[in-house]
Amino acid sequence: MLKKKLKTILFGFGNFASGYPEDPKMKKYFKYCSHAQVLSSHKNFDWDAVVDPDSDKRNLAKKKWKIPIVVENIKNLPKNYIADVAVISSPSKTRMNIIQSLNVKKGLLIEKPIATTFEEVRKIKQICRKKKLITQVNFFRRVNKTNIFIKSKFLRRTFGDLQCGFCIYGKGLKNNAIHYIDLARMIFGEVCYLRSLTKFSKSKKINDYDNFSFLLGFKNNKEILFTHIDFKFYREIYFDVWGTKGRLEFLFEGIKIRYSSKKAHRAVNHFNELEIDKVKYINPQLGEEYYDMYTNLADSIYNKKKLVSDLNNAMSNEYIIDRIIHSSKNNSKLIKL
Ligand SMILES: NC(=O)c1ccc[n+]([C@@H]2O[C@H](COP(=O)([O-])OP(=O)(O)OC[C@H]3O[C@@H](n4cnc5c(N)ncnc54)[C@H](O)[C@@H]3O)[C@@H](O)[C@H]2O)c1
Q1: Looking at ligand 1, which atom is closest to the CA of residue 74?
Q2: Residue located nearest, by CA, to atom 37 of ligand 1
Q3: Would you list the domain boundaries of the chain?
Q4: How far away, in angstroms, is 90 Cα from ligand 1 center?
Q5: Which ligand 1 atom minimizes the distance to the CA of 14?
Q6: Residue of minimum CA distance from atom 28 in ligand 1
Q7: For a disulfide at 160, which of 33, 117, 243, 272, Cβ 3.0-4.6 Å?
Q8: Please, which residues have CB within 8 angstroms of residue 193's CB and are 6 or more apart in sequence?
Q9: Who's near 131: CB < 8 A, 6+ residues apart?
Q10: Each residue's pLDDT tens digit in the chain (337 positions)?
Q11: Which residues, 6 or more positions from 262, have their beta carbon under 8 angstroms from its beta carbon?
């Protein structure tokens, strides 16, 4: 039986929600690259309201997307308006107030980072629990079919156990590295310890775009080093992990995924090598993740299916971020989790 569509309100109709109009190239790789695209076409959601203080964004919602209820702030919503689901894509500092004053019955989809401090993240979790809201946080790599294949099959067969890894990112620990912290946890399990290699003074106010170099330690003391580049020269988020059976590399933020497997060393007896000069590629199955995050949220609301990225998962990422900042402000102290 077809389920009733979930009445949905969207907070924050910025670039990501309305769809990077300046970047048509994205469409070539990602079928769905905005909340608007998913909400306007998803079988389980009925998108009928937008809240944004910016009048240009409100006009876009009214004229291009034909949204019936478009208001400047939450107080201006019609008195009897109650949504089933709220999507929150406004800046991280605004989320707590929105979630607190929100009239919503069933669920939330929140953008990352959830809030500006871990304290606020904890409060948001309490509010969601009190309001009994099923809450998905948009760590969309968890729903990507290739990542699921890597985790469930490829790892054991072709990669083996983690030996070490590297991640190059830019434009913020909280903004971008957080996705790869999540991916590393998804594939290799929980972080056991960490250390920031960047030192900041205790008084520094950290924003979403500050970069840090740091180490994450996994089971058996296997480490992944994260460090950063400046996207003004070129953009890349590169994740390179070395296993006991092979090496796996995510290039261009996952647009290309390649691996090198093990064979007898070409020049040294009694050793193996990785065929780094004969890499093979894995089909990345990109572009439907945003749609699938919504489907998973609807399945969880209708059928109690497990969320791929619930608040507990998001909180683990946010806690790691909080501890990296703490380490950076405490002389690069090693922190056990
Ligand atoms: N999951 C992902 O991969 C991904 C990708 C891009 C952005 N994001 C996240 O999405 C969020 C938005 O990013 P963006 O690039 O669209 O930013 P943006 O600045 O373009 O958009 C934010 C919008 O929120 C509006 N806004 C401000 N205060 C508000 C309030 N109190 N209520 C409602 N709306 C309010 C602003 O007017 C603006 O239109 C960020 O947290 C970002 O980290 C996530």
Answers
A1: 32
A2: 54
A3: 6-137, 142-286+319-336
A4: 4
A5: 21
A6: 90
A7: 243
A8: 217, 334, 335, 336, 337
A9: 104
A10: 567 999 999 999 999 899 875 567 887 888 898 999 999 999 999 999 999 999 999 999 999 999 999 999 999 999 999 999 999 999 999 999 999 999 999 999 999 999 999 999 999 999 999 999 999 999 999 999 999 999 999 999 999 999 999 999 999 999 999 999 999 999 999 999 999 999 999 999 999 999 999 999 999 999 999 999 999 999 999 999 999 999 999 999 999 999 999 999 999 999 999 999 999 999 999 999 999 999 999 999 999 899 999 999 999 999 999 999 999 999 999 999 9
A11: 245, 246, 272, 273, 274, 275
Range 251-260 contact pairs with CB under 8 angstroms and sequence separation of 24 or more: 254/141, 254/144, 254/146, 254/147, 254/284, 254/286, 255/29, 255/284, 255/286, 256/281, 256/284, 257/146, 257/150, 257/281, 257/282, 257/284, 258/282, 259/158, 259/159
CATH number of 142-286+319-336: 3.30.360.10
Give the tokens for residue 94: 């605004």
pTM: 0.96
The ligand 1 atom at the shortest distance from the C-alpha of residue 11 is: 33
How many Å lie between the centroid of ligand 1 and the Cα of residue 95? 10
